[in-house]
Amino acid sequence: MSADVNDHEMWRERAAIYALDALTGEERREFETHLQTCLECTAELLTLRPAADAIAQTVPQLDPRPELRDRVLSSVLGEKRTAMSAAAPAPATRVVPTPSPMRWLPIAATVLLAVGLGVYANGLRGRVSRLESELDQARAQSTALQARVTRAEATLASAQTQLNSAQSQLAVFAAPDSRRLTLAAQKGAPEGVAGRADWSPSRGLALAVSNLPAPLAMRDYQVWLLTSGAPVSAGLLPKDAVDGRTVVFNVPSGAPVPIGVALSEEPEGGVAQPGNRIYLVGMMARAQ
Amino acid sequence: MWFAAVIERAGLRMVEPAPERRMVERMAAGDGDALRELYDVHARAVYSLAVRILRSQSDAEDVVQEVFAQAWRNAARYDATRGTVAGWLLMQAKSRSIDRLRARRARPEQADDEAPRDVADSSAGPEIQIVRADQASRVRQALDELPILQRTALELAYYEGLTHVEIADHLEQPLGTIKTRIRQGLLKLREALSASELIGTKRVETSE
Predict the structure, then answer these.
(1) Which residues of chain B lie closer than 8 angstroms to A204, CB-CB?
(2) A113 interfacial to chain B (CB closer than 8 Å)
(3) What CATH number has the domain spanning A2-57?
(4) What does the pLDDT read at residue A95?
(5) How far apart are CA B33 and CA B47, in angstroms?
(6) CATH architecture classification, B13-127
(7) Mutate to test the interface with A, among B1, B2, B140 (most CBs of A within 10 A)
(8) So what's the architecture of B132-208 in CATH?
(9) What does the pLDDT look like over B3-26, one tens digit per residue?
(10) What is the predicted pLDDT for the residue at A206?
């Protein structure tokens, strides 16, 4: 057990050093392997990286010489122009040298030279057409690649969305002060309704319910923090989160320490105090 | 509110200012004006970071050129969900500067890795201006307030590209101490960063 704790501390330290890019090569590879299976270190790293990156903002700000702007822009934009003109096949006739120096050559030599130039020009024509077909192929591939990139981007965007949601849940679950509670169905609740919540005073409430029917028209499910005084609204349950999806609620500012969590059905938009349709209630276990 | 802060801190910024993002999209489409705009907004920060790391005006100028050339080439691959445009450029600036620093150290005849430590900022000419946005000044302040060992460890890692083993060696401290100091220092910067983000954030929704 204590070995696990030490191990855990070691990885947390490594996450910080990794965020600063200051691990040795071997440690870096070990940590990257560890990251693949450890959500907690991944979350730790995701929050430490911006802190490391922020160091860049603290350096004294200096103005570069104005000449640098022209140098950078003309080199970068010029580079593109030359790259494009190099890619465009030149007309074959342009590469045949002009015949003016031939005047002083003997006829035979001129003929030989002309034949040679013809062969040379033919070779060039062949090369140009090969290049053209390569370019066509490259264009076709680039269209296909572009489509793949677009698909990959869409996948990435959806993964990012999932990650966001996972991150916020994780923040609640992984908070050191997090407490888990089970919500039980109350009298009059729809058949089979159940719920599970994690509460952290610093991070908020993560709640997942199951088997709750979609709310009726003009109705909403509202989530409550039960306190020693009046219940405090944590907010409305999103209408698509009635079966299985975990939803994270902010800590209402100034909310007292809750002794439990409840869910009720209320008029659409929510109310200040719960009515009599309370479907789920869970009480906080005593702190150890 | 903390949710937005988690997203922010996690670097999963959904709130990149739209004009910035559009600038990069236009660059991806080959719009040279967009590159000019990007340069005008960010060259100063990129240059300043490179000067801080390399302590040399001409090397820093080369880095600026490389960073913007790369931004132009890779504009299509920029992913706004991974971080801000400024963060993207500064990350490039840092890694290129550190590469140069390491190459410079590897050339023994130069042996200048200790030398120009304190003269550096004067190399940028007379127009030195110090501008600090709210967030930068909070992080700066947090950095300044760190115990000297924590701050030095962070700076040696960030500006000199040293590994923690090299830092321990350099500061003649046990490796364990340095590892702990790096983590403590970074945690304090994280706090400062999230505090400034909370102040700048005005989210009132109660759920995701």
Answers:
(1) 2-3
(2) no
(3) 1.10.10
(4) 37
(5) 20
(6) Orthogonal Bundle (1.10)
(7) B2
(8) Orthogonal Bundle (1.10)
(9) 344 444 444 444 446 677 888 999
(10) 86
Q: Which of residues 202-241 of A touch B (CB under 8 A)?
A: 202-204, 233-238
- Structure tokens of B198? 């909370």
Annotated domain spans of chain B: 13-127, 132-208
Question: Please, which residues have CB within 8 angstroms of residue A204's CB and are 6 or more apart in sequence?
Answer: A172, A248, A249, A250, A251, B2, B3
Domain extents for chain A? Answer: 2-57, 78-156, 179-283
ipTM at complex level = 0.75
Q: Which residues of B touch A71 (CB under 8 A)?
A: 61, 65
Instruction: Enumerate residue ranges in chain A where pLDDT < 50.
Output: 1-2, 81-106, 108, 288
Return the closest-CA partner of residue A224 out of A277, A187, A260: A260
Q: Which residues make Cβ contacts (< 8 Å) with residue A257, sequence separation at least 6?
A: A201, A227
pLDDT in tens, B153-200: 999 999 999 999 999 999 999 999 999 999 999 999 988 877 765 544
